[in-house]
Amino acid sequence: KQIETINAKDKESQVKQKENQELKEQILSEKDRRSGIMSKLNDIKNKGLEIKSDIESLKSYESEHDNKINQLSKNIEVSNKQLDNASKEQEEYLKELDEVKAKIDNFNSEKVEVDENCPYCGQKLPDEKIKEVADKVSADRSSKYNSLVAELKKIRDKSDNCELRISDINKEINKYSSEVSEENKNYAECNYNSKLQKLNDERVSLLKDYSEEETKLKELDANIAELEAKITNADNNESGESTSELESKQNIIKAK
User: Fold this and answer.
1) Burial, 244: exposed, middle or buried (Cβ in 10 Å; 0-12, 13-18, 19+)?
2) Residue 7, Cβ neighbours under 10 Å: how many?
3) Among residues 17, 6, 2, which one has the least CA distance to residue 239?
4) pLDDT of residue 77
5) Region 77-99: what's the mean pLDDT?
6) Exposure string (b/e) for 159-176, b if CB count within 10 Å is 16 or more?
7) Which positions ≥6 away from 172 have C-beta within 8 Å?
8) Are 34 and 220 in contact (CB under 8 A)?
């Protein structure tokens, strides 16, 4: 009867060993699943880093765009002030030109007469003296005329230079304005808001996927831990039973 009991226990031990083996195979299978989840989590992390980098690049582009537009706007503002000052300066030059031209016209319209009589005694001056007075009057008028013409030229040169400056400033303003238009065009073609929204949506979706995979991982780890605990308990029980069976077998042999 004791031998039958031992044989039964041997069969029971074989069944438990089989169950243990099945548990171990199940653990291996679960660990394979765990590796797959870890790989997927790693892929999600890498994709998340790519999206983060893309968002940072996009925001950096927006910042550069804003800085360019702000700088160009400041340049246009400064140029407009320069243009306003130059225009006012040009108005003054044109006003001065009109005044000098009027002086020249008045000078040319003046009737010049040489007094042939002596200012002191009233007698007629000798011809030589009359010629001397006439030459002096002519020289004085020539000097005054040349002075007016020189003044006119000086003001005209300033006006011409101012006109060139106004032209250059207008070219600068047009250049800055074209750059603003081009920059805004490029920014519009970039579809910044649309791209940013798409990246943010992808990031939200990844976070959701990551959370789901993490939940699966926790459940899987708990399941693996439970299976390993079963194997440990079974091994402990098997060890105790093996010692007891060994003692029983030794008793049987002694009895014979």
Assistant:
1) exposed
2) 10
3) 17
4) 97
5) 96
6) beebeebbeebeebbeeb
7) 75, 79
8) yes
pTM of the model: 0.64
Segment 181-207 mean pLDDT:
93
* pLDDT tens digits along 222-245: 999 998 888 888 767 655 554 455
**Residues 133-183 pLDDT 10s:** 788 888 988 999 999 999 999 999 999 999 999 999 999 999 999 999 999
**For the range 188-195, what are the long-range contacts, defined as Cβ-Cβ under 8 Å and sequence gap of 24 or more?**
190/61, 192/58, 192/61, 192/62, 195/58
